[in-house]
Design a protein that fits this description.
two-stranded antiparallel sheet
């Protein structure tokens, strides 16, 4: 299992990851370090542990907000699918009705044609 060194809040950490995930882990660490640095810029040096916990809470808040957005979008997609299915059923019913009407008209034409000697 490969391991890499990442830097968060100026400190190096050795982390293990799955094969091929090194770049992804570096990117995640860099992103998290950005949260820590933003907080440090806003609040100053309030302690490594507190900065890390606050950054973790911020990331979790964003994650939950994104999960809620995804759930909302999934509901909208499901509603649209159901609406599409309903429209499809309505269209099919309309098509069936149209087919019956055309069949009835065709029978009337055949009947008229027979009466006219055709």
């Amino acid at each position: 299992m490969p391991s890499i060194n990442v830097t968060i809040n100026g400190k190096n950490y050795r982390m293990a990851c799955d094969d091929g995930q090194e770049e992804h882990l570096e990117m995640l660490a860099s992103e998290f370090d950005g949260y820590v640095n933003n907080l440090k810029g806003s609040f100053g040096d309030i302690g490594d542990q507190r900065l890390t916990v606050m950054a973790g809470v911020m990331v979790t808040d964003e994650l939950l907000e994104l999960k809620n957005q995804v759930a909302s979008l999934e509901k909208k997609v499901e509603t649209l699918k159901e609406s599409g299915a309903l429209q499809s059923r309505e269209k099919q019913a309309g098509d069936d009705e149209l087919a019956k009407s055309i069949d009835g008209i065709a029978k009337m034409i055949e009947s008229l044609n027979k009466k006219l000697g055709g």
